[in-house]
Amino acid sequence: MERTPLSPETRKQLIIAQRNEITEHQIYKRLAQTQKDAGNRAVLEKIAADELRHYNIWMKYTGREVSPSQWYIRKFYWISRLFGITFGIKLMEKEEEKAQINYAEIGREIPEAIAIGKDESEHEAQLIGLLKEDKLEYIGSIVLGLNDALVEILGTLAGLTFALQNTKLVALAGIIAGIAGALSMSSSEYLSNKSEGKHEGAVKSALFTGMAYLVAVVFLVAPYLIFTSPFTALLVAVFDSILVVFVYSYYISVANDQPFRRRFSEMVILSTVVGLISFGLGYLVRILFGIDV
Asked: What does the domain layout of the chain look like in residue ranges?
């Protein structure tokens, strides 16, 4: 039975769909080869096979081969390697949504499109949910470390900036407070996990918390080692804190399917309020004790 010719718009969307499918097939296939965990490798290979199957279905209707996007393959392969497979895959899926492939519209001419669309949105989401990554399993510890560092160290730097008005002294105090804070947070996280019976992940959880704390400290203290004006350094530190909040809020929103704006706004407001209070306290301390460095 001869197929009814496709409409130009449907054919155009099928070509886009084909390119997406074969590109993602290559990405999943390459990522699967990097996995030591057999479960993760099996999940990625299954998704890769599904993508190739979808590609072959579309090719039956278009009657042509479509080459994958090498740029997208390299881009999402390295994003996934650097920031975690789940983050890379979900970011890729978000970009795929922007391709504006209307499966319901295509389904009017190709009934199989409805099932494939459902497969893309539900089945792959279920499979992605099976992936296991340290970055996501310990995301709570990372957030804890970052949040505490941004609030505590930014507040400390703001207070010391007005009290001391010396970038080197403020940087030194910030580094000491940062290292002490990281060790304190790591030990607290370790003991907290042990008390809850989480013996296996206690050490990793503590390490993730401490490392996240130190990363935030580096971003906040660095301006005081670069600029000579303490107030310029403080402004840059505040900008750095907003940048850190933006990056990890975006990461969590993509990897864990959480709202970005709410988390970002809450953290920025909290850090700003604490910074202003600390800045005011630093001013009072300077006046009351007559500090002049």
From this structure: 8-132, 135-289
